Amino acid sequence: MKIVLLHDGDDKKSASDLLEVIKEQRINGESLPFEGDWETKGPSWEEKFAEATHFIAIFSESSDQRPSGPSWFSFAAGFARGSGRPLVLFGANMDALGAHFIKDGIRIRDGGEFSAYLIRESEEWTRANRVKQARDSLLEQGIPVTLDSLGRCIKEKDCQAVSLFLQAGFAADTLDKAGVPLLCLAVRAGDRGIVSLLLQAGAQVNLKSQDRGGSALIDAALGKHSEILGDLLAAGADTDTKSKDGQSPLIISVGLNDEPTVEMLLKAGANADEPDSLGASARKYATLFNKPGMVALFQKYAPAK
C-alpha cells in the first residue's frame, strides 16, 4: 500500500503533517508537490502515479479557488478515476470545486477523520492483498482457483494448498457441488491436519452433507478415524447426530467393532439407548453381536438404568 499526497507548492506544510500521520500507521507514503511549470519540468508523473494505491489531494486555504481546481487536479482526478484507485480530497477548502470533479472523491476535512480512514483502508488493503497473493500462489503451482480444485486438494491431502484456498477467500463452510461440506471431505480423506485447519477457520462441526445426510462425526465413525473423531468431539460435535439411515456414530462404531471409538463416544456422553430406524440401540447391537468387550464398556460408562 502506498499513499501519494498531491498538493500545490504552498501546501508543503500540510503535506508534511499528513505524511507523518501516514508513517505513524506504518504505511508507505510520498509527497508530490506541483510547482511552477509542473507539466514539463516535473518528474515523470505517470511513473510516480503508477506506484500509488491511494491519492490524497490537499486543499488548504491557499489552494486554487477555481471551479476546475488547480491545473494538476484535473490530471490527478482523471488518472485516479481511470485506474480505479481511491481519490481523497483533504481540507476545508474544496467547496469551490465543480461537482463533476469531486463526485468520485472521498471528502475528509481534518486529521482525525484522516487517521480513521487510514486504519480502515490499511485493514482492507491488507486483506485484499492477502487474498490476491494466495490466489497468485495457487495459480503459480498450476492449481486452478475453483471449488472443484479445492475439493481435489482436500482428497489429495494437500494441506498447504487448502490453506491457500482459505486465504484466497473460500469459506471453511463451503459445500462442494454434491453438497458435501469441506470438513466432511477432509474427514473422509482421513487428514487430521486439514480437519484442524478447517475447524480453526470456523467450519461448523455439525454441518451435514447432502449425500450421506450425516455430519463430519458420522464420517469419522465410518472411516474409523478415532483421532479425528476426538478432535471433532473437542470442537463440540453432537455425539447423537444421525445419518440419513438413522444411525448414530455410536451405533456405527459398534457395527464396525471399533472399541476405541465406542469408548471415546461413551466418555463424551453419547446416548447408548437411542434407537436407529430399525428400533435397536447401540447397547442392544453390542449384545446381539456378542461383543463382550463392548458390553463391558457400556456397563462401565453408561450402565443400564
UniProtKB/TrEMBL annotation:
Keywords: ANK repeat, Repeat. Signal peptide: none annotated. PANTHER family: ANKYRIN REPEAT DOMAIN-CONTAINING PROTEIN 39-RELATED (PTHR24171). This is Ankyrin repeat protein. It comes from Treponema primitia (strain ATCC BAA-887 / DSM 12427 / ZAS-2). It holds the Pfam family Ank. ANK repeats lie at residues 178-210, 212-244, 245-277.
